[in-house]
Amino acid sequence: MTADDLRRAITRIAHEIIEHNHGLEHVALVGLQTGGVPLARRLAATLAEIEGSEVPVGTLDVAFYRDDIGLRPVLPEAVTDIPFDITGLTVVLVDDVLFTGRTVRAALNALNDYGRARAIQLAVMVDRGHRELPMRPDYVGKNLPTRRDEMVDVSEEGVVIGDIRDTDPRGRA
Amino acid sequence: MAEGELVIRGGEVVDATGRRRADVLVRDGVVVEVGQGLDARRVLDADGCVVAPGLVDLHTHLREPGREEAETVETGARAAALGGYTAVVAMPNTEPAIDSAGVVRQVLEAGARSCCDVRVAGAITVDRAGTRLAPMAEMAELGVRIFTDDGRGVQDARLMRRALEYASALGVVLAQHCEDEALAAGGHMHEGEWSSRLGIPGIPSEAEELMVMRDIALARLTGARVHFQHLSTAGSVAMVGAAKAQGLPITAEATPHHFTLTAAEVASYDPVFKVNPPLRTPADVAAVREGLAAGVFDAIATDHAPHAQEAKEAPFDEAPPGMLGLETALSLALTELDLPIEQVLALCSWQPARVAGLNGQHGGPVTEGFPANLCVIDTAATWVVEPERLASRSRNTPYGGRKLTGRVRHTLLRGEPVVADGVAQR
Amino acid sequence: MKHLLSIADLGAEGIEEVLRVSDSFVEVSERAIPKVPTLRGKTVVSLFYEESTRTRLSFETAARRLSADVMNFSVGTSSVKKGESLKDTVETIEAMGIDAIVVRHSSAGVPWQLADWVDASVINAGDGWHEHPTQALLDCYTIRQRRGSLDGLRIAIVGDIKHSRVARSDVLAFTALGADVTLVAPPTLLPPSLEGWPVEVSHDFDGVLPKVDVVYLLRMQQERQTEALLPSLREYTARYGLTTRRAHLLQDDALVMHPGPMNRGVEIAAEVADLPSALITKQVANGVAVRMAVLFLLLGSGGDLG
Description:
Oligomer: heterotrimer
Largest sheet of chain B: 8 strands, parallel
CATH architecture of the largest domain in chain B: Alpha-Beta Barrel
CATH topology of the largest domain in chain B: TIM Barrel
Number of domains of chain C: 2
């Protein structure tokens, strides 16, 4: 995907979120560290442009909730910051790449400790397949079939598929 | 125990009179001939080896009576024989202390059956408590020649003076474990850079040096002989050197751990490195080595101090002080000190024999008519210290894994090979 | 590395990593449900041969907030039997299947001995006069919270340095992070040798106070008086106590710290302890987060500490 493809996908996802939830009341975004955070911010900005209302944005690091603890080094990359009560809200989790689904599962467990959301939805820029858990996204930028050993990198400049270098549990560069 | 006839063949005889290539013929517990081409029914091979008078240890803890789980007279004597020792002086800090004829007799009897000539040091004070003189004459009558409260020093200067005066009439020597208890109180290692870093209460050098200074003065005052045990500081070495230069009747011993190990070893917090007096600084170790080379020290003594494994696995400040020494002393001296073999043997054999009043029986010379208390040393053999394979009942050696050069091949006690080819015969 | 025995084992990088991860655990502790599942199924044992409710509870809270199971073997509960050797006690505990031992003992070196005897991770919660690494870590964290970085800060540590494991760990940690440390104490309360310690020494408390960014006070124990180390506690307070008068000598933004528990009126005046610049309660609060970080890094992350 090019940078323009990215921009168009964000706009499309924003419209889908508004449509699906009949407006933005009771909607909040939570970006997953690290790739989901800039995306969540861009999404929030786009939602504000379209509907004219500010959506609360939080960030979530799931290091402490991963199910592969003890197998490989997993340190938190940033401090979780959810400055609002999620109880009764529809939380849209935002991540850049959906792969095995374990990160999303960890995020669901984490959110549980912050309150009881009314609903949780998932927005990802890229779904690269190879699910190991029954997780499915509500909003997808692009479906990109990949080999297991390939790497997917999402940045401002676009989406790139490359060869594996180090082992990253989230299958990203 | 006389054992027919045997010949020690092919070695180089080294004793106080010099060194020469010769075979040594032994019969009925005595050396009968030293010469060339000798033969007998039993041959002990000494090819490439030094044949010397057996070693004499002025300072060994045999733990019997009272602490037999750590060592007994029998197991300690075996360890001694494997280390080349034909005589050891057993320290009196047993339970009960060796402060009367009865306990002296008990230890001598246990020793009579063992593979080393076990002599006994009697306590200077009753129960080593430092308040009343022990019956030294009664013990001297049984052959005790050295008295010490070792484990402790005699704290009271007036009592020590009386003891020296009394002893001078008996022809015995008082040996002192120099430690001023008020200064040393609460300490578990040398006080200095390492104790500050490791957070362990320290024992300053002055705790030893104050008593050395005092007893040199008392020796001057009373004219009595004083033997200083396990001196560990540069200051002590200097004072003893000066006192000897003035002709005072003073002798001194140093242990192998005080010429090889420093306080830095304690950084591991392993209580195997806990000892009294403690391991000190590199400057102190250098001073002890120089003292050995220059003749300030008369003897190397082991201060062999066995402790059961559980005791040495306690927290550092709760563990008892002390290290094994009998089986490694000679090898350490040969490996670590840069001294000719005659000087090493002087320090390990005939000089301590003289201090203990055993010259005539131990320490040689290796000559016709002299009792056959000998050791044969393979000076080129290398070996690695394995705590599990030592003959001592205990395992607390700080030298586990260390590679040493020089090993005892045979040891003869009154003509009997108690150690042959490195193996204890009983 | 699988143990935390000494600050020296961590180095500047290791310390920074603990502090960084502690930020995340501060956030966890501020939630309504201050708990994460990270150490679920792991067992942490507190083995306290020296009574210390605060430190022990701090560690146990940290372990529980990580969803670990906690066992308490401590002198107070009489499960530490008299006469049973340390080694036997520890081997018995390990046989029950545990992952970490948090140990406090009055003898220096015990954590090192334990590390030799067991497979579990060993965390030093204070060994005699020697070290108290987690205290130093939470002290660094507290200073960093207020000042951003310790690099170039001037810190005075005041009091019974000789007998203080907190002082030894703090000296190592503060200097590793670039601070300048001055020890202030009467000569009888300094270690026999400061060879190799990267510190200055002063006996002039008043002279030091205006120049420092942090003054760290150590607890002055009654017993020191009886050991002939001090003529009286009054004399100590007169020369080395942070009285109200002395507190005015401090710079406006200087911080006052103490490892607790305080002897109000001895090393610190009661009013001074309640000033906003006194961070004692913050230190305690941070203690849980920092200990969570340590437990997480040793048992949960699978990574290397330091």
